[in-house]
Design brief:
alpha/beta, DNA damage, Type-4 uracil-DNA glycosylase, DNA repair, hydrolase, five-stranded mixed sheet, Uracil-DNA_glycosylase-like_sf, globular, 43% helix
């Protein structure tokens, strides 16, 4: 009998090392006992004691075991489960794969496969619950004065399984700009905006139940999205079990919202007859067309005075550049920086565009720069305003302005940056990466290429560098089209 001892919790690395050694030795799963931490031997004698001879130690340099990708993904998931038999079940699965059953996961009725699938489902559900029901509370830590005056966020959660490390990438990506700590009975995480630290199990800290602006925000958001016409307490408890309510600030509002649902539904029915019709982009365009501006300056005055179709924008961001410019460059919509300054392409994407134009031999001041949508559309995330792509209806609403604008500028070539700008000019969905290059836009010759923000989202490396070189080559090619036509 061979005894394999792993760390408590989800010891994926330890399991992989042990598995490689067991497979190299051809160990029978029935002759292996798995345990975590300092758990005693199932036979009452700890490894290394007693008179029974010990098996040879596992080889430390055993080669990796080649497994189908779905099997590897299943192992990563099931290792996070609390079931003490999980390692033995996975060892048995791997042995069958090594012996030739590489499509074993396709046999859903197989008892081993069925049991592992249930463990995998439980872990994935636990991950979903932690993603959905973990709530941060703001605390002040004077010791961290460099972090926005000691601003820090702490959350407490009680997962069913050992999933804390598996959730780390989700929370780092979602709350990258904050300093936060997640505490659970099975482990902890700390993020300082630069690096992630995995820590030991923790106890629920005192003071997390007090009200703060984060809790108030969650409650207001929940109340604003609650639909009284579709209230179903049974379904609510199934999706949001009561065990999570103690950590959810919005849970305090649930009883009152359920009690008031019938009255709210009746009020909605009575108000429906008097509700104003939704704004129709076609009618808005027709109303604009009746104004018929005679100059670009007059058109800009109309744009400034118009209500934004997307609420929240500070101001309309107008085009910039000379009338009669040989090249007009059309982006998607203003970003946060553009909305504040009131000028197009002044944020990070605009700075990248300026650099690429210079390398392509195009003077930025000699080109006309504008956007298909004139107002910044965003969703608020704390103090940040995150870009939201405009809908096809919103692009249609602003298209009249764009066409009039280009009519006054009279460029010889229109370069569209990204799919939204190409949609506005062509009137159809355009796959930029497949159709990049020359394209006719009615009265104008056009050229389709990527938006600089796409390049900023690419991970650093040779792929991003090549994408930037391709973007510069597109702009250089567009410049050549203008010179040839001129």
């Amino acid at each position: 009998m061979r005894h394999v001892e792993l760390k408590d919790g989800a010891d994926l690395d330890g399991f992989r090392r042990a598995l490689r050694g067991l497979v190299a030795l051809g160990a029978d799963p029935d002759g292996v006992v798995w345990s975590g931490g300092a758990a005693p031997s199932l036979f009452g004698t700890a490894p290394g004691t007693g008179t029974a001879p010990l098996p040879a130690p596992l080889p430390v340099d055993a080669p990796p075991v080649p497994l189908p990708r779905p099997v590897g993904a299943l192992i990563e998931s099931v290792v996070c489960h609390r079931d003490p038999e999980r390692y033995g079940l996975l060892h048995r699965l791997v042995c069958r794969v090594v012996r030739g059953e590489r499509d074993i996961l396709d046999h859903h009725a197989d008892p081993l496969v069925h049991r592992l699938a249930l463990l995998d489902k439980a872990v994935r559900r636990d991950l979903h619950k932690m993603h959905a029901f973990l709530r941060f509370r703001e605390v002040r830590d004077p010791a961290n004065s460099e972090d926005r005056g000691g601003e820090r966020y702490v959350a407490w959660f009680e997962p069913d399984n050992f999933i804390v490390e598996a959730t780390a990438p989700f929370f780092v990506e979602r709350f990258e700009s904050l300093v936060w700590t997640i505490l659970t009975p099975v482990g902890s995480l700390h993020w300082d905006r630069r690096s992630l630290t995995v820590g030991p199990a923790a106890l629920r800290p005192e003071g997390l139940d007090r009200d703060d602006r984060f809790a108030e925000g969650w409650q207001r958001y929940y109340e604003s999205t609650f639909n009284p016409a579709r209230v179903n307490p049974t379904a609510m408890r199934a999706e949001m079990p009561r065990k999570y309510w103690a950590n959810l600030p919005e849970a305090a509002a649930i009883p009152g919202m359920i009690r008031g649902a019938p009255a709210r539904v009746q009020a909605m029915i009575e108000a429906e007859a008097a509700a104003p019709r939704r704004r129709n982009p076609d009618k808005a365009v027709a109303a604009m067309a009746r104004q018929e501006p005679a100059t670009l300056a007059e058109l800009n005055r109309i744009i400034r005075a118009a209500d934004p179709l997307v609420p929240g924008a500070t101001q309309a961001v107008l085009g910039e550049g000379p009338e009669g410019a040989a090249i007009a460059i059309v982006g998607e919509q203003p970003g946060d920086h553009e909305d504040v300054e009131g000028r197009p392409f002044v944020g990070p994407a605009g700075q990248l565009l300026s650099r690429a134009l210079e390398e392509a031999g195009i003077e930025r001041d000699a080109a006309y720069l504008t956007n298909a949508v004139k107002h910044f559309k965003f969703v608020a995330r704390g103090k940040r305003r995150l870009h939201q792509s405009p809908t096809a209806g919103e692009v249609k609403h602003y298209r009249w302005w764009l066409m009039k604008e280009l009519g006054f500028v009279r460029p010889r070539l229109v370069v569209t940056l990204g799919a939204t700008a190409a949609l506005a000019l062509s009137g159809r969905s355009v796959s930029v990466l497949r159709e990049r290059g020359p394209m006719g836009f009615g009265d104008w010759e056009g050229f389709v290429t990527v938006h600089p923000s796409y390049l900023l989202r690419l991970p650093a490396g040779e792929g991003a560098e090549q994408a930037y070189r391709d973007f510069v080559a597109d702009l250089r090619r567009a410049r050549g089209m203008v010179e040839w036509a001129g």
